[in-house]
Amino acid sequence: MSAQEGTERLRERVSKPAAAIGVLRRRRAILLCGLVLGAGIAAAVQLQASTTYSASANVAFPSGTLPEKVGLGVPGGSSGEEERELNTEALAARSPEVARAVAAELGGTARPGRLTSAITTEALPGANVLKIIASTPHPRESARLANAFAAQYVAVRERAQLAVIEGVQRRLTSELLSLPPSSPERATLSQSLQRLNALRAFAGDGTHVVTLATPPSSPNGLSTLEAAGIGAASGLVLSLLIVYLMESLDRRVKTVEEMEHEYGLPALAAIPRFSVDASTAGKRKELLEPQRISPRSRASSTRSS
Length: 305
Prior knowledge:
Elements (H helix, E strand, L loop, with lengths): L2 H12 L2 H10 L1 H21 L4 E8 L5 H5 L8 H14 L3 H11 L5 H6 L1 E5 L5 E8 L2 H40 L6 H16 L7 E4 L12 H26 L6 H8 L14 H11 L6 H10 L1
Antiparallel strand pairs: 1-3, 1-4, 2-3
Helix pairs in contact: 1-10, 3-10, 6-8, 8-9
């Protein structure tokens, strides 16, 4: 019998619900082993995996650059420029300068590079909000680290804005001094310098922490119970595939119906299956063994005859 014929027989065998239940009952040991092994392996892997907790703080920042606010640049507004600005702010929140400031704030022996490796940033779409996520083995440490990066990001951004204002002021002052007193551009540059002096007092204004991070109540990923459930389902599916393979390769005829289908002849008789316990086996042995006759009984029976 070919493998294709065996597969067809298996399909016919499990086409009826009762036959399918019979196959599953006969192979229940394999199904149970797959179920238990899958759940056990998944639970063991989950217990051995390192547990991390994530906490996040949100920081809002105004859009646009300082030259645009002062009127020295061309206003943006396109989606590409806004996306680039968000990506720039996301990188700035994990910059070495921010990490060094966080290390100085927290103290201890933590290195800035190690602190940065525990931080991820996300720019929320449709809003000038930056999400700073800290992931560590301890929930309180994660919240503390996320809040420290958020606060230092605001402080570093304010210092960077002041540096930009001072640089623009120096450039405009140099241009103003190089112009003749009668130049009409002197008035425009003087107005720009006045706006810069006003903006200097509000450097960093608008950049603030929207929400502080709180210690998470549960670790990242799946719980041990969830992992065990997924492992049990995976083990059950794998064991079902094994049962299907075993049944498709099995060439034995197990029922009267299969025999009649294979040979095209009706069954005349069938030997029923019955269980034999210890007491029944002993009685059958006594009945089947030949009775032993003593010599005296044999002699008496000979005289009688």
